[in-house]
Design a protein that fits this description.
With 89 residues, this protein is of the alpha+beta class. Helices cover 30% and strands 9% of the residues. The protein has 4 helices and 2 strands. Strands 1-2 form a two-stranded antiparallel sheet. It is globular. The protein starts with a strand and ends with a helix. The mean pLDDT is 79.
């Protein structure tokens, strides 16, 4: 079981990214560290720090359950920086 991300660009020939759940969790931990905070300190990840204390455009990607949850909206995806979100045309 794992997680597969498609960009919603109409190219259904294959996923752009595919991770195990543990691989995706590690990816999110590294993103949080790059943004200057530890994901383990945040509410929902074992910590007490509220998301209102963190300012990051990556919050929709980081503050979500590993399984289930709604799809990210196009607006939420559009704010993900190019190095994370891939090449933009």
């Amino acid at each position: 079981m794992g997680l597969t991300l498609f960009p919603g660009d109409g190219d259904d020939s294959g996923p752009d990214v595919s991770w195990s759940y543990s691989g995706f969790a590690a990816f999110r931990r590294r993103l949080a560290e790059a943004e200057g905070f530890a994901l383990r300190d945040m509410k929902g990840f074992g910590g007490d720090r509220p998301w209102s204390e963190v300012s990051t455009v990556l919050e929709p990607l980081l503050d979500r359950p590993d399984d289930g949850g709604d799809d990210l909206s196009p607006v939420e995806c559009a704010v993900v920086p190019a190095p994370v979100g891939g090449n933009r045309r």
